[in-house]
């Protein structure tokens, strides 16, 4: 998730974000392209669903978020792990921008972003995996009818996904 302001220039090998007060701690992605490679190699469409309440809280702009996402997608594609699409929710209960403060159906743990991507890309949620680093990710996936899993900071995304693919796409 990119629900924080970055404190260093964006670097595809090490991305770190400072925490927002009252939000979860620092999120660090050590090599996102490598972590996504396995899923791309398995022929899966890769999506990112992300709460971006920092937009509503005016901690960063939507343009800043898109610049970050474009860099992430570019780096992932160069490594052979194309990200199919990214859905984001700019809403936050403490948003400074009034239009982004109210309740919405997209902010996780709601499943609106998953349903949006499923409709756009003709995805069967019952045959889809959601891997998230927060309980709200898993809750959103469950609400959408996806197989949903929580990954913690001690696990590598590529290894975790490989284990899940063995369960959900067993080889004969």
Descriptive account of the structure:
This protein has 172 residues and is α/β, with parallel strands linked by helices. Helices cover 37% and strands 13% of the residues. The protein is built from 6 helices and 6 strands. A two-stranded antiparallel ribbon has the order 1-2. Strand 5, helix 5 and strand 6 form a beta-alpha-beta unit. Helix 1 (32-41) crosses helix 3 (62-78) and helix 1 (32-41) packs parallel to helix 6 (157-168). It is globular. It starts with 14 loop residues before the first strand and ends with a helix.
Topology:
Layout: E1 15-16, E2 28-29, H1 32-41, E3 47-51, H2 53-56, H3 62-78, E4 85-89, H4 112-121, E5 129-132, H5 135-144, E6 147-150, H6 157-168
Parallel strand pairs: 3-4, 5-6
Antiparallel strand pairs: 1-2
Helix pairs in contact: 1-3, 1-6
Arithmetic mean pLDDT? 78
Q: Stretches where pLDDT falls below 50 for ≥5 residues?
A: 1-30
- The number of distinct β-strands equals 6
Q: Considering DSSP H and I runs of 4 or more, what fraction of the residues is helical? A: 25-40%
What coarse outline follows from CA principal-axis ratios?
A: globular
Q: Pairing-aware structural class of the strands and helices?
A: alpha/beta
């Amino acid at each position: 998730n990119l629900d924080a302001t970055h404190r260093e220039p964006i670097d595809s090998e090490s991305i770190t974000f400072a925490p927002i007060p009252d939000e979860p701690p620092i999120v660090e992605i050590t090599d996102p392209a490598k972590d996504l490679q396995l899923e791309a190699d398995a022929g899966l469409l890769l999506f990112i669903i992300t709460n971006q309440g920092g937009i509503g809280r005016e901690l960063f702009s939507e343009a800043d978020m898109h610049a970050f996402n474009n860099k992430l997608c570019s780096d992932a594609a160069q490594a052979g792990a194309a990200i199919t699409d990214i859905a984001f929710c700019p809403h936050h209960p403490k948003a400074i921008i009034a239009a982004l403060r109210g309740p919405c159906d997209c902010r996780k743990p709601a499943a609106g972003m998953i349903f949006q991507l499923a409709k756009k890309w003709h995805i069967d949620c019952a045959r889809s995996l959601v891997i998230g680093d927060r309980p709200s990710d898993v809750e959103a996936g469950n609400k959408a009818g996806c197989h949903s899993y929580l990954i913690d900071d001690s696990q590598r995304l590529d290894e975790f996904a490989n284990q899940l693919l063995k369960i959900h796409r067993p080889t004969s």
